[in-house]
TrEMBL record:
Keywords: Pyridoxal phosphate. Belongs to the DegT/DnrJ/EryC1 family. The keyword Cell division does not apply. GO terms for biological process: polysaccharide biosynthetic process. This is Transcriptional regulator. It comes from the Bacteria. The keyword RNA-binding does not apply.
């Protein structure tokens, strides 16, 4: 999420043990790496998005699926064109998921500039990270992962504390900063900061206002997910682009 890989090794190990294929949602993570492995190459399938807000954004909708499995590749190709390998001979139910040639041509040109764009994003993210510490007294979350009991540590933090984006990864992991997401401890404080920035003409976004189990279509999933709910009330994405990052000196 947000441009970095998940901590893939435990996921891959658990899936292998149970013989479950792993589908990597690398929509936001094109170019990200985990221990030298590219996002979208570690599971059975990798899915990328070329939606305009992505680091490699098309002029409209677009996406890509990667796999090393020849049979799956063939299946995905069929799904892409109404389930047909040979035109008008439909072997399965598919859809129209073709990438338009003009989008592909546009993306091919942009692809040449991707490395440079990611480099600039990383530089901007580093600058923003530093400014947040200096101007807003932002701190890193106590633990690497919420799953390691960070909620207790954060519970001791004062409402309004700004937490810097954290990584579940070793420092060698390469983030692509598709989103630069801070957390503001105490949900109402996040909303207050968002209003303040909006009045200054600075657009922010909340990724995401509802967690999966709160979505109407998935509300059937049983269980309690207090960490996910807490995050939805605290996260705030600040503007960051390859050639631009807003300054906190407002
Ligand atoms: C993490 C994640 N997964 C999946 C998607 C869906 O991508 P698309 O809209 O190209 O199908 C997005 C796009 O916003 C995303 O950010």
């Amino acid at each position: 999420m947000f441009g970095q890989c998940a901590d893939m090794d435990p996921i891959l190990a658990a899936a292998k043990k149970r013989n479950i294929p792993v589908i990597e949602d690398a929509a936001q993570a094109l170019g990200a790496k985990d221990k030298g492995r590219m996002a979208g190459t570690m599971g059975t399938l990798g899915c990328f998005s070329f939606f305009p807000t992505k680091n490699l954004g098309a002029l409209g909708e677009g996406g890509l699926v990667t796999t090393k499995d020849q049979d799956l590749a063939e299946k995905v190709r069929k799904l892409r064109v109404h389930g047909a390998k040979v035109k008008y001979f439909h072997e399965m139910i598919g859809g129209n998921f073709r990438l338009h040639e003009l989008q592909a041509a546009f993306l091919r040109v942009k692809l040449r500039h991707l490395d440079q764009a990611l480099k600039s994003r990383r530089q901007n993210a580093a600058r923003l990270m530093q400014e947040l510490q200096e101007e807003w007294k932002a701190v890193f979350p106590a633990e690497k992962c919420l799953c390691e009991g960070e909620s207790n540590a954060v519970g001791k933090k004062v409402d309004g504390t700004v937490l810097l984006p954290f990584s579940c990864q070793e420092t060698s992991a390469e983030h692509t900063w598709n989103q630069f997401v801070i957390r503001v401890v105490g949900g109402k404080k996040r909303d207050g900061l968002r209003d303040f920035l909006s009045k200054k003409g600075i657009q922010t976004e909340i990724y995401y206002p509802k967690s999966m189990h709160e979505q109407k279509c998935l509300a059937i999933v049983p269980g309690e997910f207090p960490t996910a709910e807490k995050l939805t009330s605290e996260v705030l994405a600040l503007p960051l682009a390859g050639n631009f990052a807003f300054s906190l000196t407002l």
